[in-house]
Design goal:
Length: 201
């Protein structure tokens, strides 16, 4: 009788172990299948809509796409986050709406020759005699919009200005005066001081 009980216990134990092993192997198979699906999804490059591709091509001419991800809200695609690499091998991020509008853009360099016309015109008006640097910086934020930071050289000094994407000057350094004008100003100031002294005497 004792032997029968032991046999029943051993048999029950073997069945339990078998069921546990089978359950574990099913879980492992499911995990492996999920991993394989993720790998397949990762291997497939994300095809961006035409409007998004056009915006990237127009605004980031010399940059190459490194990575692109969909931004979703409530399982619906609401935009795209695109990681790009510029000519200087620096990476930056651009977030675009589904219709291709730039929502955010991390600060990165762009060629001054490729600045939007409104920005280039504003830079010329701000410092007409200055020579623009080869590269400018651009950044887009949700709350402030697009801002370009241009550098220029004038009278041997480097000057900077921040210009909005619409061409409005946000902030600009004071322009240095040519040396000849400085000499004239000093001369005029000396003459004024001289005149004031003569009037007092």
């Amino acid at each position: 009788m004792m032997l029968k009980r032991w046999m029943v216990c051993l048999l029950a134990l073997a069945v339990c172990l078998g069921l546990a092993t089978a359950a574990e192997s099913k879980d492992e198979k499911k995990k492996e299948e999920k991993k394989e699906e993720k790998k397949k999804d990762e291997k497939k490059p994300l095809v961006l809509p035409d409007a998004v591709s056009k915006t990237i091509k127009d605004s980031c001419k010399d940059a190459e796409v490194v990575e692109a991800k969909e931004k979703k809200e409530a399982d619906k695609v609401c935009g795209y986050e695109v990681k790009l690499k510029d000519k200087c091998e620096k990476t930056f991020k651009v977030v675009l709406s589904a219709d291709g509008k730039v929502m955010e853009e991390s600060k990165h360099k762009v060629p001054s020759a490729g600045l939007p016309a409104a920005v280039a015109d504003a830079a010329k008006k701000w410092a007409p005699a200055a020579k623009l640097a080869e590269m400018a910086q651009v950044e887009t934020k949700k709350d402030t919009g697009t801002c370009y930071e241009v550098e220029a050289e004038m009278c041997g000094k480097t000057i900077k200005a921040k210009i909005g994407g619409d061409g409005k000057l946000i902030k600009g350094d004071e322009l240095p005066q040519p040396k000849a004008e400085k000499k004239e100003e000093k001369k005029e100031k000396k003459e004024e001081k001289k005149e004031k002294k003569e009037k007092k005497d």
